[in-house]
Every structure is written in structure tokens, then in C-alpha cells.
Amino acid sequence: MPDPLAIAGEELRCARRGAAGLRCHGSSILASWDGSVTAYPLTVPTLNDVVRSRTDLTETDLEGLHALLGEWQILADLSFADLVLWVPGRGGSGFIAVAQGRPTTGPTVLPDDVVGQEADRKEVEHVARAIELGEIVLADAQRLGFDLDVSPVRRAGKVVGAVTRQHASSSAREGGSALEAAYVAS
Description:
Elements: H1 8-16, E1 22-24, E2 27-31, E3 37-41, H2 47-54, H3 59-69, H4 72-79, E4 82-88, E5 95-101, H5 121-133, E6 137-138, H6 141-144, E7 146-155, E8 158-168, H7 170-173, H8 178-185
Antiparallel strand pairs: 1-2, 2-3, 4-5, 4-8, 6-7, 7-8
């Protein structure tokens, strides 16, 4: 793939003429008001792509993950949080994000897509503990800068992954949105 910055000038001119999302050489170019240009991949890897190519999960495990994702958006909306589904990488090599959901009811703390990426140091210890113990893990929000809860995902009695629920820390949100306040109050 050509370097997106090499073609940024042409794409930026297109963006200033009012084009919302520009496609070029396998990337989508996003130009912001300050003139900066960012390249994003045109496609996000699918759950099937990532699980089959980078994990040791079985087809039965994959079916179970699809069932979970059937309710994914409502879970993100009702929790006012970003959700990421992590599974162990092939041969136990770290944890791979295989699905992501953003709330439509509040702000996101994950501005970029993480599907296909490995867990970073902020998440990896908590994801590993939730999977190893098979229990919910609550992370230290002050240390991370956001609230993080990690719940194990089970299939046929076996923990096959973990879901992280990430949202702006309670102190940073100042009570959250009016919708969140009404929901919590009821």
C-alpha cells in the first residue's frame, strides 16, 4: 500500500471541497479542520477473519461468540461504554481484539478501531486475570485514566475470552449525559 501521506495533498484538496470520506489505495483518508490527515484501512477485519487466522478457538467457540455479538450494541448502549471482546492469541501469544462496540448513548473512550490488535499493557494484565480466574476484574480507574471492567466469556464451561467495558472515569464524566443520569436514577 502506498504511503498515505504521499497522497495526502491530493486527498486534502478533495476533503476541502466537501467530500466526507475519501478512498485511495486501500485507505480511507480523513482530513480534519486543522488540516491534519489520517489514513484508516477501508475494512475492519471480521470476527471470523481474526478468530480463524490468529487464535486456537474452535468453530463451536466461534458460534458462541457470534451469539454474544447478537446482543452487542444494546450492551454497549445500556452500559454507556465501549466494549471490546478479547480472545487468547494462537499458542497463548497475548490477547487479540476480535470485536468492538461503541455506545450510541454516550462518548467513546476508544476513538480508533481495535479489532485485530493485541491488548496493550493497560488491558493485558486485567484480561489475563479475568480469563485465568474466570471472574470479573475491576481495574484501577485512576491509574488507567478510564473505568475498566473485564468479564470472562464462557462457552460450554470453558473461558474462551473476555469482554472489557471501558468508559470515562466517573470523576471525568461529571455525572455523564442527561440520558445516563435518567437511566441511573430509574
